[in-house]
């Protein structure tokens, strides 16, 4: 069932699940509350579990030393200097979090139209990657492959006459991917949504001796207002001209997500992502059922801000909502979740 790597074909959808009614004896023989009576029985009957192994922790990094800058729209999250990022990776190791994902804050004066800093071997992101890999090699480092932090226009691709040009952007992204692989990245996360980038990167990685670097494709990435706080965090809010609707997906679409995932797997992605997370759990479920590939969701900055913001106001029990939101991803078929809650969730899971 699912996607066949050898033929490139997609198997037909699963038939609908058998209706549950016939296997239930009528009340009072069947009382579904019996297995909810006590924690032990609820534990035995649990269909899904969340573990630290399911977590990828996104962090924001900035230049400087021994410093952190709190992001106003993401209470509890700060941009970290390189040394503090290494501390975060050590914390991840201590908590058993398998992977950390790096997003750089780039000074506005360093942003250009050609985005050349994106593939500089010693840019901030690559220095942080190398530092983490030398201090904490057990923690997998994931990087973001997209031009937006480096782009004067704030877009993920190169802009020519107001158009985000696809093929030229892919060439730039491939250079960026190679520089990240050379810095020691374990997982590349192309979040740019250009067509053809996965195949181009996979080919270049193979040719460059980086055949074991994994690609977690942001395959079904929607043009979402839930990214607002992230753009504050990486300093892209002010820079962005227009919106990203010519390359990110229309939130109205679902079948298109399956075509994108099929395409990215066929081009050499090892893992695929749906983004944002909670508002798109229907997509996660369809992707997992259809392809059976390692499937991840990104609980994005706006989702984090809603939970952390309401929690800070005392409107919800933040910890409980956090854990409930994370198990929802597992229930929807995800193998893992990128979440800013990763260290807090890991602490609760380890307790
Ligand atoms: C940019 C990128 C974005 C996010 C991850 N990579 C924002 C965007 O597409 O504008 C969003 C993550 C979040 O909101 O937490 N390539």
* The named CATH superfamily: Aldolase class I
Q: What is the number of strand segments?
A: 12
Question: How much helicity do the residues have?
Answer: 25-40%
What gyration radius follows from the Cα positions, in whole Å? 21 Å
Class by alpha and beta content: alpha/beta
CATH architecture: Alpha-Beta Barrel
Order of helices and strands: HEEEHEHEEEHEHEHHEHEHHEH
Ligand inventory reads: ligand PBG
User: Which stretches of 5+ consecutive residues score pLDDT under 50?
Assistant: none
- Which strand order spans the largest sheet, edge to edge or round the barrel? 1-4-5-8-9-10-11-12
As for the CATH topology, it is: TIM Barrel
- Which strand-content bin applies to the residues? 15-25%
Overall pLDDT, averaged?
A: 94
Q: How many domain modules?
A: 1
Q: Main sheet?
A: 8 strands, parallel, barrel
CATH class: Alpha Beta
End-to-end distance, in Å?
38 Å
Q: Count of helices?
A: 11
Please tell me what the overall shape is.
globular
Task: Describe what you observe in this structure.
This protein is α/β, with parallel strands linked by helices. It has one domain: Aldolase class I (TIM Barrel). Helices cover about 35% and strands about 15% of the residues. Strands 1-4-5-8-9-10-11-12 form an 8-stranded parallel barrel, surrounded by 9 helices. Strands 6-7 form a two-stranded antiparallel ribbon. β10, α8 and β11 form a beta-alpha-beta unit. The mean pLDDT is about 95. Ligand PBG binds next to α6.
